[in-house]
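Appendix C reproduces, verbatim, an entry submitted by the partner laboratory led by Prof. M.T., so that reviewers can inspect both the input and the predicted structure.
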Amino acid sequence: AAWIATATGVPLVVDMRDPWLESSSAYWPTRSHRQMMETMAYTVMKVASAATVVSEPIAEEALRLGARRAHVIPNGFDSHDMVPWDPEPESPLTLAFMGTFYALTDPGPFLEALARVAHEHPEAADARLHVIGPNDALAREAVERLGLGDRVKFFGYLPHEEALRIVAQADAGVVLVGDVPGSRAVYTGKLFEYLGMGLPVLAMVPEDGVAADLVLRARAGWVVPSGDRSAAVSTIATMARAKKAGDMGVDADEAVVAEFERRNQAGKFADVLQVVMC
């Protein structure tokens, strides 16, 4: 694409869904491999008319790589696809995680907190977790090791609409982002769908990252520092008490949530194209 842009003069807009150099999933066998990647990134940005990115930290990286402009257009949700939040009032506190477990979203600390809360807070002893996504052997092993077999249910991979229907019946959606290089730039796509559904959010994420900032700015739920099991235990117990009282106490800022509706984002991207074509 960079070669075509150079040869034809056609404007090139580079879209960065993740950091290129500070990605939590990037691996370079040697220093030479990393230098080669950096050279390629600088080359692409040199000829790009603009970059679109999903978060401010990635915008900063794009500018360091030589981007002329970096426009922040995060992931979002399509309101036509969303299933309204409709929790079961008589059920125990039910949390839902939708997505894939991997290094960035390691469920270990959260599962350990879920196991601990039953011993430390009797009012949350029946709190449960529904996992919707590809089967993960390590997560299942952790569930069995921690004695959570009767409180964690794996639904496996489901069609999007069916997955959303299950999540909509939970009391809150779980977002997990580990404290690893590049993770402060990561929202994870599920966060926006939780917001679009009106589902409260329990985010176990870096406190100084974009996901934490969004949850707090939208008044959408609770933020727990990555890996902080004690804070997670306390928060789950608070949520269990709120559930039994009949009020989760979350009143999200609709204006903030609306920023991430796909129609609004499409308009922002159209504005970027208008600028680079002029």
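The chain has a mean pLDDT of 92. Additional entries are available on request from the coordinating office.
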